Amino acid sequence: MFSRAEGSPISVVTGGAGFLGSHLTDRLLAEGHRVIGLDNFLTGSEQNIGHLAGNPKYRFIRQDVSNYIFLADDVDFVFHFASPASPIDYLEHPIPTMKVGALGTHNTLGLAKAKGATFLLASTSECYGDPLVHPQTEDYWGNVNPIGPRGVYDEAKRFAEAMTMAYHRFHGLNTKIVRIFNTYGPRMRLRDGRVVPAFIGQALTGEPLTVFGDGSQTRSFCFVSDLIDGIFRLSRSNFHEPVNIGNPREMTIKQFGEHILRIIGSNSQLDYRPLPVDDPKVRQPDISRARQVLGWEPKVEFEEGIRQTIDFFRSKV
Ligand code: UDP
Fold this sequence. Notes:
By secondary structure, this protein is α/β, with parallel strands linked by helices. Helices cover 37% and strands 17% of the residues. Strand 1 (10-14), helix 1 and strand 2 (34-39) form a beta-alpha-beta unit. The mean pLDDT is 97. The structure holds uridine-5'-diphosphate.
């Protein structure tokens, strides 16, 4: 059992075996925290936390946080990162996605309140839906279809934000909300359906790149170490409103595919497929607030981050 009496901060990371949860865990351990990871492996993986086996500052509990969480330990920070997060994953698991955003957020807020801990919610640029304001600032309320296929993720996260603000206002809980924009890097799943692993995997094996729609929709890609740094800074701040964390370097999906082909030196063709329902046409974070409140901005160049990600995927294809 972790106790405050031993000194170093104690953090709980839900989704601790996921792409972002495992990178966040590594950062917290490097900062001297003790960490308790919770994950039910719906989309997380043991491989992401295998290197932590035997670390006395780390404990792992296999649990679905949509169910009641009991911990005897002291807790200083709760980071709620559990959720399917790729469009394919949440289309395949629509009800667990809604439950972990709604019930899981309620349970983790309750845990933070019971322990007197700071709470940080992993929210998303999907709160802006198919945005009518570009780039997206935090005071934009979004354009979300509640009953479309993506609604299970978007509305669960919007509920999670509302619940987090209610705990802050009503219970005085110290809460933070990060709106995470498209992030990439090692430990993504090769087949999670997102564009970064999809295109890199296809380019490495010489298959055609599956471009959805005409490829004119835009995204802005942030390397994982930059994102985690922004989140770590936010956890230490006194700021309670949502903060966008992402890289403002925007490109079309077609341009993204062409960059991947060039960097890998692949001759794969572009294979145009139907655009998924409600696929946002543009996405770019306005990071003025993160700059001002956290003194944060991304540092890793696109080419450098993509090369590291390609190296990770080489052994997976
Ligand atoms: N996309 C694509 N081909 C793929 C996977 C995704 O063209 O094999 C497109 C998708 O339609 C979207 C963008 O790439 O416009 C980013 O998709 P992703 O699933 O990575 O995440 P999203 O930003 O939509 O949540």
